[in-house]
């Protein structure tokens, strides 16, 4: 299933498929672009099926309802939300169009990479583990970006041998998405990715 979200500042595309043979996806995401910011939350619920979806969809709803808040506050709210639920790995990305910066925080195995037109890559490091409502440290960083930067954020159901060349060699979110298609056919896990380009 493909969902796109675009304005003058960002073009994004989200793609999601459940594990082969399943109908309920344990990954959930939320994306929204406004005139001021783009926000993306991606969560991978532990295990699979409905209980995994219960955790991950709680995260996407929570971030939707609190999207004006900053990333550090949001990830802590996400952790509290998962108390008494199955845990989840969670990443939150918020892009500030006016200051041309993005802030990222992640706990667990969701991957994020941003490539700039001048050829550099930003790979913010996650904290290992998962959110489960227990006291938790976070690693939240803000970076500046250049116009034309592209990014990819994905759960561990997508396994990519050469992520840098995928970002470097494709010039639109549609091209990026097409180039990822061959990696989405043989799935042992739920799979979600979001690609984006900044203007
Ligand atoms: Mn997974």
Automatic annotation (TrEMBL):
Domain PPM-type phosphatase: 11-198
Species of the source: Bacillus weihaiensis
InterPro entries recorded: PPM-type-like_dom_sf, PPM-type_phosphatase-like_dom, Ptase_RsbX
Protein name: Phosphoserine phosphatase
Taxonomic lineage of the native organism: Bacteria, Bacillati, Bacillota, Bacilli, Bacillales
Gene3D superfamilies documented for this protein: PPM-type phosphatase domain (3.60.40.10)
